[in-house]
Amino acid sequence: MSFIKVLILKFSSLRTQTMASSDKTINTDVPEKDVFAIHFLQSLSNLTTQNPFNSPDTTNYRARKIKKAAYVSMAKAAGGSSRLWSRALLGRAAKENNKIVRFARRKRKVTWKISSKRRSDQRAPEATDRLRNLVPGGGTMETSKLMEETAHYIKCLSMQVKVMQCLVDGLSPK
Amino acid sequence: MDLTGGFGARSGGAGPCREAIGLESLHLGDEFRQLVTTLPPDNAGGSFTALLELPSTQAVELLHFTDSSSSQAAVTAIGGDIAPPLHSFGGTLTFPSNPVLLERAARFSVIATEQQNGNVSGETPTSSVPSNSSANLDRVKTEPAETDSAVEKQVPSPNQTNRSGKRKDFEKKVKSSTKKNKSSEENEKLPYVHVRARRGQATDSHSLAERARREKINARMKLLQELVPGCDKIQGTALVLDEIINHVQSLQRQVEMLSMRLAAVNPRIDFNLDTILASENGSLMDGSFSGTAMQLAWPHQAIETEQSFHHHRQLQPPPPQQWPFEGLNQPVWGREEDQTHGNDHSNLMAVSENVMVDSANLHPNQVKMEL
């Protein structure tokens, strides 16, 4: 009846498909747009339920919140803990949330640890390290795994950009 | 020296080695089948147990100094006794009826026999007709460790048949000392069998593993290169990686910009979503306030709030429209309310269509231009 139920049904069917095709060597399934959209919309509604619009939040803070919600829902839509980067994103979000709850809104600076042993690729060491800093959870991956995760991460990011663009276009005042 | 020769022959071409292995196993299987079929295993007991109690070298010598018929019988007895487990082990072997293969196997067996004969007794390899069985015996006794070294010795053996006995004694020492080493090395190499060393490439296990790793990285790089637009024409790993990094950074920046824009238009989303949820479970709209209270009691944790959200929607849906109805009864919202209550379903479908259909057509360049 309502589109959320339809989307959830579609989500379950897509989930079974991805489970069936998960035994390939390089598995970069495109994550589902509707799944990300539904996660994102729900977390947005939660966000505004917790912080009503007339609360003294600045737009900057709200934008940060929305960005975090977008990343978390992207990680969830990408399959939760099946990917290394999504697992790292979710873990980081949980950690930051704990920090924020405990200490009053201090943004914890996350520094990815880069072990010098992993830096064994002689051709482009600094480039891979920069890529490691970009992909969440990339500090502890080996290089081939980092490439694979980066491919999946890029796909998810482009999907996220598309969906958010559609949301902005569809919901902004004409 | 023999070891290096064997390795050289191995790294020279993996094809002949493989063929030799296949021939060797085929040859062994064929002989075992012959032995099993020719001799019934019940008269095997006495001589074999008598042989087993001796040390192996003595047994070989004993076999060697008897006449050919008795040694043949004893060895066939041994073969008949030992063969069934090995035969069952090699159950996947197919015994060829191809005469060419059989002839080549016979030739290889003769070469191996000469080699083994020289190794064991130090004699000249010409008198090797009865000691065919002794070589077979030796190979049967040390079967799992022997196959590799025997195969490696078969390839350079035509050059070695007319060498002196001294050299062969030395070879024997080397062989006996490196037998265990070789078997362990082969166990290590087993996962990397699919990596072929080309001419002039190193063949130790570290190099093989490193090569496999590099090939894996190159495959992933190719995949990434296909993903990033305009990246497939660039040559060089560092440049490709730079392009990939730029792409990821631009995507992350786009997400940031879009979240800022969404924050600017956020209230309408809230209202739409709330009406969505209200229309979804409209019959349960008069639920308790405890749901909202619990939702408020959660910390700012998107994960847990979302989980609790699912939870509540399954058990007892919270009335989410209480917040906008409570504090936001402004004329703007009233207009929105009328509109959305009038055709909420069509609006929802429009939103979902917008999400599902239009997002397929958007490209990052368009997004950039719009921004």
From TrEMBL, chain A:
Residues 115-141 are annotated as: Disordered. Residues 36-95 form the IBH1-like N-terminal domain. It comes from the Eukaryota. It holds the Pfam family IBH1_N. SUPFAM superfamilies: HLH, helix-loop-helix DNA-binding domain (SSF47459). GO terms for biological process: regulation of DNA-templated transcription. One of its GO terms (cellular component) is nucleus. One of its GO terms (molecular function) is protein dimerization activity. It is found in: Nucleus. This is IBH1-like N-terminal domain-containing protein. It comes from Capsella rubella.
TrEMBL record, chain B:
Residues 114-193 are annotated as: Disordered. Keywords: Nucleus, Transcription, Transcription regulation. One of its GO terms (molecular function) is DNA-binding transcription factor activity. Residues 182-191 have a biased composition (Basic and acidic residues). It comes from the Eukaryota. Residues 201-251 form the BHLH domain. InterPro entries: bHLH_dom, bHLH_ZIP_TF, HLH_DNA-bd_sf. One of its GO terms (cellular component) is nucleus. Residues 114-136 have a biased composition (Polar residues). It is found in: Nucleus. Coiled coil: none annotated. This is BHLH domain-containing protein. It comes from Capsella rubella. The lineage of its organism: Eukaryota, Viridiplantae, Streptophyta, Embryophyta, Tracheophyta.
